[in-house]
Amino acid sequence: MLTLSNLAPHPGSRKSRKRIGRGPGSGSGKTAGRGHKGYKARSGSGIKPGFEGGQMPLQRRIPKRGFYNPFRKQYAVLNVEDLNRFEAGVLVDRAVLETAGLVATKDQLIKVLGRGEISVSLRVVVDRVSDSARRKIEGVGGSVGPVG
Q1: What is the predicted pLDDT for the residue at 58?
Q2: How many domains does the chain have?
Q3: Which DSSP state fits 118?
Q4: Which of 27, 28, 132, 119 is nearest to 82 (CA)?
Q5: Is residue 24 situated within a structural domain?
Q6: pLDDT tens digits, 55-107
Q7: 117 within some domain
């Protein structure tokens, strides 16, 4: 009967690893299975990803298009309809939005857009606010202030 105390793999199903470079008696000593000389016999060698034997690699042959701006600002977008969940008179800033689960990452800038309607008066302090969102927030008696 098979129990946890006598579990074992089938005989011959598990092989021990080949120990290379351990002398001539081992059968794979001296050159350690790498052959004699050449690029692939050297330490630290090996064909790198994308290498095509000296032919111009694909990633250099195809034409390049576009531009990635490393300095671009990426905003976490929020709409005024999302602010209805807060009570009137509350200061809505980064910390409050994070605890409410409306902003995922801490290092992302926050922008409020004007989709939907707002019915509560709030003090909103975020990085950017669109003109329509500012009008709607101030229209119900709220205020929009700069960060800091």
Answers
A1: 95
A2: 1
A3: -
A4: 119
A5: no
A6: 999 999 999 999 999 999 889 999 999 988 888 888 888 888 888 888 887 77
A7: yes
Cβ atoms 114, 79 nearer than 8 A: yes
Classify 95 as helix, strand or coil: helix
Q: Within a domain: residue 79? A: yes
pTM: 0.55
- DSSP labels, 44-92: T--PPTT-BTTBPPHHHHSPP-----TT---EEEEEGGGGGGSPTT-EE
Greatest CA separation for the chain? 89
- CATH number for the domain spanning 92: value is 3.100.10.10
148: helix, coil or strand?
coil
Q: What strands lie across the sheet with 91-92, from one edge to the other?
A: 91-92, 123-125, 143-145
For residue 103, give its domain range.
75-145
* 12 occurs within a structural domain: no
